[in-house]
Amino acid sequence: xxxxxxxxxxxxxxxxxxxxxxxxxxVTASPKAHSAxxxxxxxxxxxxxxxxxxxxxxxxxxxxxxxxxxxxTAIRWICxxxxxxxxxxxxxxxxxxxxxxCGDIHGQFNDMIELFQIGGVVPDTNYLxxxxxxxxxxxxxxxxxxxxxxxxxxxxxxxxxxxNHESRQITQVYGFYDEVLKKYGNVNVWKMFTDVxxxxxxxxxxxxxxxxxxxxxxxxxxxIDHIHDLERVHExxxx
Length: 239
Description:
By secondary structure, this protein is of the alpha/beta class. It is built from nine helices and seven strands; from the N terminus they run βαααββαβαβαααββα. The strands form two sheets. The chain has a four-stranded parallel beta sheet with strand order 1-3-4-5, covered by helices on one side. Strands 2-6-7 form a three-stranded mixed beta sheet. Helix 5 links the parallel strand 4 (127-129) and strand 5. The longest helix is centred in the first third of the chain and has 16 residues, at 72-87.
């Protein structure tokens, strides 16, 4: 299944039901969805994990599904855990079908919840997100925090790629920086997230046949091996 963008499409070897949720939609996750998402699965990496700072990923996920802004200390913990997971992923991630592919979310929390309601809960459904989690919408903080928390909890069930908005320069123009400043009174959380963005993979291949990435390719990149050779852990170059 593929969500994001408009219209309907079909690709060989994938079951697609393309949906284009309205930005004005008002959708909240049901208690059942909350509990199902937070529940552990066979691929769970952190199950009720309470770290040195007393952090519990399940507690964070439950709050984030209610679109609650969690404390700065919790953000730091999630970002640290997510960076550990992302460090082990290559520039081009191999993803097995069936998988639900999702396009830009851009801080639209209700649309993201609707995607989960239609596509199924993690870890029952595998997801591939193509980037642009932040900016433009009103809930970029909650969107990206929830996705990273789910990545920490179920690293094999959710794949997050980097979009052009996952950068320091772009987020200072299109809203994420200002949203963090408004909600936390400082830019510490923005720095934490933008540091994690540097570790996001650049592309994915589904079932060895479908190549997925956020945007276009440089003409200097002729093969997937060339993408693997890139040093991705830095700010996106601005042309």
